[in-house]
């Protein structure tokens, strides 16, 4: 089933599904757990539209390509074109706030990094971006105050607070828009806090955003 943007309150969303522009290493504690060096500038990558799948209900992970990790990230739905934009324009263009899992084939990513190759196959494969329904921005309050979490089989794994981002949302959107025009229907993933780990078929995940959005999903293999 093709992915479509949906609001939690059932209001229609006529924005087409687009690309996902993502940032790596945007929380200091995750940089440390990966053993990575702090980057001088945001580390950007893109997941194609074909990576998007709904988060709720069930997500399918590859079982024959090494470890597949969850990265729980605050996600933004873009509602207006952004190109070389100002921070004010960036915030104005946010049409939805949600959660996405940046699914990552970690073993493959390590191989590609070691070889000096692009990460694409490890993060852009079909189904690599599981996206929640969207909350209207007016309903969630200031983005920098948002918190989110992921529990795996009832055990808390990740807790994020937008205030801890190395590059905060308005600056991040501006930076992204200098390289990649953000179009209506595109989404932005804002990086993962610490606590990433492997998924296995049969896992039950619960994702919570600001106590306003609660999503349950089951992991299956494919
Ligand atoms: Zn990520």
Helix content: 10-25%
| Spatial strand sequence of the major β-sheet | 2-1-12-6-7-9-3
CATH topology: Fumarylacetoacetate hydrolase, domain 2
Hetero ligands: zinc ion
**CATH domain class:** Alpha Beta
Which strand-content bin applies to the residues?
25-35%
Total domains: 1
- Average pLDDT works out at 96
The CATH H-level homologous superfamily? Fumarylacetoacetase-like, C-terminal domain
CATH architecture: Alpha-Beta Complex
Largest sheet: 7 strands, mixed
Compute the number of strand runs. 15
- What is the radius of gyration computed over CA atoms, rounded to a whole number of angstroms? 16 Å
Which structural class do the helices and strands define?
alpha+beta
Order of helices and strands: EHEEEEEHEEHHEHEEHEEEE
* Number of helical segments with 4 or more residues: 6
User: Termini, distance in Å?
Assistant: 15 Å
> What are the segments in which pLDDT stays under 50 over at least 5 consecutive residues?
none
Shape: globular
């Amino acid at each position: 089933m093709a992915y479509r943007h949906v609001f939690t309150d059932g209001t229609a969303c006529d924005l087409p599904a687009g690309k996902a522009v993502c940032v790596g290493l945007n929380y200091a504690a995750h940089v440390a757990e990966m053993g990575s060096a702090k980057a001088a500038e945001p580390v950007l990558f893109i997941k194609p539209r074909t990576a998007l799948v709904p988060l709720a209900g069930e997500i399918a992970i590859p079982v024959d390509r090494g470890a597949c990790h969850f990265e729980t990230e605050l996600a933004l739905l873009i509602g207006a074109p952004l190109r070389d934009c100002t921070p004010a324009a960036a915030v104005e263009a946010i049409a939805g706030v949600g959660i996405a899992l940046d699914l990552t084939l970690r073993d493959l990513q390590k191989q590609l990094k070691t070889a000096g190759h692009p990460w694409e196959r490890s993060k852009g494969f079909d189904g690599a971006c599981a996206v929640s329904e969207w909350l209207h921005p007016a309903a969630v309050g200031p983005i920098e105050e948002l918190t989110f979490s992921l529990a795996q089989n009832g055990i808390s794994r990740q807790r994020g607070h937008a205030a801890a981002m190395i590059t905060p949302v308005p600056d991040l959107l501006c930076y992204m828009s200098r390289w990649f025009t953000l179009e209506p229907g595109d989404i932005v993933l804002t990086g993962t806090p610490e606590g990433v780990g492997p998924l296995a078929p049969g896992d039950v995940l619960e994702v919570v955003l600001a106590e306003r959005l609660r999503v349950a999903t089951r992991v299956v293999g494919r």
